[in-house]
Design brief:
single chain, 507 residues, alpha/beta, Immunoglobulin-like, TIM Barrel, 2 domains, eight-stranded parallel β-barrel, six-stranded antiparallel beta sheet, 25% helix, binds alpha-L-arabinofuranose
Length: 507
């Protein structure tokens, strides 16, 4: 057991937390919609075909804003295929995922499902095969209160009131050569600027997200952000970041450094955005929408792609990207959430990609049960316990050496402070050393005028770090109280096993 120390100080303020940091992402992909959230005939389905067992799990997960309908899918999507009488909707080929889209679920049905789970809609427009006019059409259909051909159709389709969607993504991953309608930064920047200006004429209340890079390792990373922001700086509110992590070559220690990679990504994009602001002599601050993040076993060990949708014909709702997450994945995942909170001053929105069946915290079996993957726990607990203000938590602990990222701290933490108390989120990234973390609560006790007491603790750790929840064993991995967690005077003592994620609530 090695020693680590930290200090919880109410003056170490990062920022008030925007709840949109706990967003999710639902794409028309694989069994996410069909056989995931929507399965008419399932014993738990409601009259509209939505699985109520999945609704309950999504509510428990605690997702705020949900990005829809893609992802790569949106770059070939005709949104109007998904409105009007269901039996008249066209079946279409989805080129992004080599599937057949039945369009049984579209904007209205998705909003209906959002009403059940209590989340807000964030819509992405197609700037791959389409452009400004189609973005205006869907915005008018969704948000306008005027009487027009589009809004009359909306009313005829059962929704006289506007959907009132605030956040809009100007396309998806337009820097990626795999994207339908992939563009260079100049072409995309001009299109995004012109589309954003037109959208604001229609609805000045929208908040717009321009596409940043699909990952920090993209060859155009950095120059893409600069060029796109030079075109769009005055027109948009957010720039997106997307990042997925996976263990490669059985190197768990390197994988456990993923949070540091995410932090560098955020800090680089902030630096670029602020340098564009400086060159424009502007006080405006562009925020980050980290609207795709997760662990994803995208690559095989040779760097190829694990799932190959193009080898399967054109099925409806095939099993795609159905990653099974183990305990180690959940620890890394918890650290990614810590990293987002550590940057809450600039990350004002984020979307866990994705929610059900597709690289998801929730899995379902057609006609069968729904269950929680390991990653469910850090998300639901952080979303529930983190509120108010994010606090920096400097930790003094050992380090390990990451091949890609240099010296990395073994223990990483963030806290949140609200009127009733404080929540602490910690990860022990070391694969070898358990840590006893001693947290000085003195400054917090002074702030509250009394000593703090533990209300609840949660530990995610498995001796077999590859243990996972499956259809046959859906409760193999969960969280349990932290053995030996105590407040000793003004010190919180937390024993943290190697490769563990933990949360503590104190009031
Ligand atoms: O989330 C899966 C895919 O990852 C999304 O469709 C795409 O935007 C990203 O490359």
């Amino acid at each position: 057991m090695t020693d680590a120390t930290a200090r919880l100080d109410p003056y170490h303020v990062v920022a008030d937390i925007d709840r949109r940091i706990f967003g999710g992402f639902v794409e028309h992909l694989g069994r996410h919609i069909y056989d995931g959230i929507f399965e008419p005939g399932h014993p738990a389905a409601d009259a509209d075909g939505f699985r109520t067992d999945v609704v309950e799990l999504v509510k428990e997960l605690g997702v705020s804003t949900i990005r829809y309908p893609g992802g790569n899918f949106v770059s070939g999507y005709r949104w109007e295929d998904g409105i009007g009488p269901v039996d008249q909707r066209p079946r279409r080929l989805d080129l992004a995922w080599h599937s057949t889209e039945t369009n049984e679920v579209g904007l209205h049905e998705f909003q209906q499902w959002l009403d059940l789970v209590g989340s807000d809609l964030m819509l992405a427009v197609n700037l791959g095969t389409r452009g400004t006019q189609e973005a205006l059409d869907v915005l008018e259909y969704a948000n306008s209160a005027a009487t027009t051909a589009w809004t009359e159709q909306r009313a005829a389709n059962g929704h006289p009131e506007p959907f009132a969607v605030t956040m809009w993504c100007l396309g998806n991953e337009m820097d990626g050569p795999w994207q339908i309608g992939h563009k260079n930064a100049d072409d995309y920047g001009k299109l995004a600027s012109q589309t954003a200006k037109a959208m604001r004429l229609l609805d000045p209340g929208v908040e717009l997200v321009v596409c940043g890079s699909s990952g920090r390792s993209m060859p155009t990373f950095g120059s893409w952000e600069r060029t796109v922001l030079e075109h769009t700086f005055d027109d948009i509110d957010f720039i997106s970041c997307h990042s997925y992590y996976q263990e490669m070559g059985g190197d768990a220690q390197e994988f456990l450094a993923s949070g540091v990679d995410m932090a560098k990504f955020i800090e680089s994009v902030v630096a670029i955005a602020d340098s564009v602001a400086a060159s424009k002599q502007s006080e405006k601050r562009i925020m980050i929408s980290f609207d795709e993040w997760n662990v994803w076993y995208l690559h095989d060990e040779d760097g190829g792609q694990n799932d190959k949708p193009e080898e399967r014909g054109w099925p409806v709702a095939p099993r795609l990207l159905e990653d099974r997450y183990h305990a180690l994945d959940a620890v890394v995942f918890g650290d990614l959430l810590i990293t987002l909170l550590q940057h809450a001053d600039r990350v004002r929105s984020a979307s866990l990609a994705q929610l059900v069946n597709v690289i998801a915290p929730i899995m379902t079996e057609p006609g069968g049960p729904a269950w929680k993957q390991t990653t469910f726990f850090p998300f639901s607990i952080t979303s529930r316990l983190a509120s108010g203000t994010a606090l920096r938590v400097p930790v003094d602990a050992g380090t390990f050496t990451s091949e890609k990222l240099g010296e990395v701290a073994n223990v990483n933490a963030v806290a949140t402070l609200d009127d009733e108390g404080v929540s602490l989120f910690v990860v022990n990234r070391s694969t070898t050393d358990a840590s006893e973390l001693r947290v000085d609560l003195g400054p917090l006790a002074a702030r509250f005028g009394r000593d703090l007491a533990i209300v609840e603790t949660h530990l995610l750790h498995e001796d077999d770090r590859y243990a996972a929840n499956t259809l046959d064993d859906p409760e193999r991995v969960g969280v349990r109280p932290i053995d030996g967690a105590v407040v000793d005077g003004s010190t919180l003592v937390l024993p943290l096993p190697a490769v563990s994620w933990a949360a503590v609530r104190l009031t």
